[in-house]
Write a structure and sequence with these properties.
heterodimer; A: 208 residues; alpha/beta; 5-stranded parallel beta sheet; 30% helix; 25% strand; B: 258 residues; 2 domains; 10 helices; 0% strand
């Protein structure tokens, strides 16, 4: 499903990942962990086409990611960035936003489904009508994860999904992700409990 | 209509003396603006006298190709100024901006001279040069506002842009909110000024024409037509230049190159 083949990544002539290969099979849930600067986020941004490898190739479902394929590849992905300052006033507007795109147009979920995802993630139903500035960091993080899941894409990318969560919320998140049977997940996390709940790999900094 | 009274040298000097009042207060409040004011006023005087000289010459000559050439020079200068003021890379974007200004001015000039004023010769210096100059001046302001807003908000809200791209938005869809904001910011002032025109402001063209001896009725008609022309030409230029800049400023992955 997701395949990193002999990847090297450089930033400003500095190699941060060298000869990295990884296969993530369909519907597998995979977590990359490791020290800051080991290249975890850079590997994820290769999948989104936000960075290009200096060597090697990345493919999704057998299709190599390049400038010709990136548009269709992005349509297959839902991504929750570590930080996302979104210019919306209400939670419901944030939820609706990605469903305006042509690629997601017919997927707008029923409110019951949204609220059921909220419940599974330990979020109160009243949050749906609230202003974004009335919502805590942890709640916002889980709302973004709920949106990504509602998009029902084959691939879910989560960048530090537990950074603002308490232990109980992390537990609900693990359960929620395990329930997404038709989704392949690649996450980056520093949280031990989250990491150990899924197939995982420690990424060590390249010493160059 | 009577011939306009020319301003004599003494009258001109008396006019300049009026500058002493603002200069005194700028000095008194230690604003540090005295030098800038004097330089700006001198530049304006010299530039406008030079414009007067060459316009007189161009009007006398009235050769269509000289007039067209002159407007082309104005397009180049306007394109350069837009990129300088927005601090965008000259080399990569100059052609895009120049093409969009040229495109807009060609359409609107032809329409205005041919269909509205119904000139026998489209490139008649007395109409073609000042009208083109006025349109270009307004296109310049609109483009500076729009491009500043577009690239500025894209930089500020980079995370939002990436979020959209990473969740299925096409490049056009991800850029749409920034284009919308740029158009709003750039055209709100013009829309607001159109609404109060004549009530709290008497526009320059009209005042100039009336002072120049035109019938107020004719002056008003010109003013209305010019406001509409300015609005249309600026919008066409802004949309076209943002479209062309988009092609130059982003790579195949939708990422900003500079």
């Amino acid at each position: 499903m997701i395949s990193f083949d002999n990847i090297s990544i450089t930033f400003d002539n500095k190699t941060i990942v060298k000869n990295f290969s990884l296969e993530i099979s369909k519907n597998e849930k995979f977590v990359l962990w490791g020290k800051s600067g080991s290249g975890k986020s850079s590997l994820m941004s290769l999948l989104l086409g936000f960075h290009q490898p200096a060597a090697g190739s990345v493919s999704l479902n057998g299709t190599e990611i390049n400038k010709q394929t990136i548009d269709t590849i992005r349509e297959e992905i839902a991504w929750v960035p570590q930080e996302a300052a979104l210019p919306f006033e209400y939670v419901k507007d944030v939820i609706a936003a990605p469903f305006q795109f042509k690629a997601n147009k017919n997927k707008f979920p029923k409110k019951e489904l949204i609220l059921s995802y909220f419940e599974q993630l330990g979020l109160d139903a009243s949050l749906y009508e609230k202003r974004l500035n009335e919502v805590s960091g942890g709640e916002q993080q889980r709302i973004m994860i709920a949106i990504a899941a509602l998009l029902q894409k084959p691939v879910l990318l989560l960048d530090e999904p537990t950074s603002a969560l308490d232990p109980d919320s992390i537990e609900s998140l693990i359960k929620f992700i395990k329930g997404l049977e038709q989704t392949t997940m690649l996450a980056i996390s520093h949280d031990r409990r989250f990491t150990e709940s899924f197939t995982n790999l420690e990424l060590k900094p390249t010493e160059i | 209509m009577n011939q306009t009274i020319d301003i004599s040298l003494w009258g001109f000097i008396a006019g300049f003396l009026l500058l002493l009042i603002p200069v005194y207060f700028l000095y008194y409040f230690r604003t540090g603006l005295v030098k800038a004011t004097l330089i700006s006023a001198s530049r304006m005087t010299i530039q406008l006298f030079l414009v007067g000289l060459y316009l007189e010459y161009l009007f006398k000559l009235n050769l269509w190709w000289v007039n067209v050439l002159w407007v082309l020079v104005m397009v180049m200068v306007a394109s350069y100024t837009i990129l300088k003021r927005t601090k965008l890379p000259l080399k990569q974007l100059f052609t895009s901006i120049a093409i969009s200004l040229l495109f807009s001015i060609t359409i609107i000039d032809t329409y205005f001279m041919g269909l509205v004023v119904r000139l026998n010769h489209l490139f008649e210096a007395r109409y073609f040069i000042p009208v083109s100059g006025m349109l270009l001046g307004n296109m310049l302001t609109a483009n500076v506002l729009a491009l500043n807003s577009f690239f500025g908000s894209l930089e500020r809200e980079k995370q939002y842009y990436y979020y959209m791209l990473g969740n299925g938005a096409s490049r056009s869809e991800a850029l749409a909110p920034f284009i919308r904001e740029a158009i709003t910011k750039s055209f709100n002032p013009t829309i607001a000024s159109m609404a109060v025109m004549g009530l709290i402001s008497l526009p320059g063209t009209m005042t100039g024409q009336i002072l120049g001896g035109s019938n107020p009725n004719t002056a008003i008609k010109y003013q209305i037509m010019l406001m509409i022309t300015i609005f249309a030409s600026s919008l066409i230029a802004v949309l076209f230049s943002m479209w062309l800049c988009r092609k130059q400023a982003f790579d195949e992955y939708g990422l900003k190159k500079f």
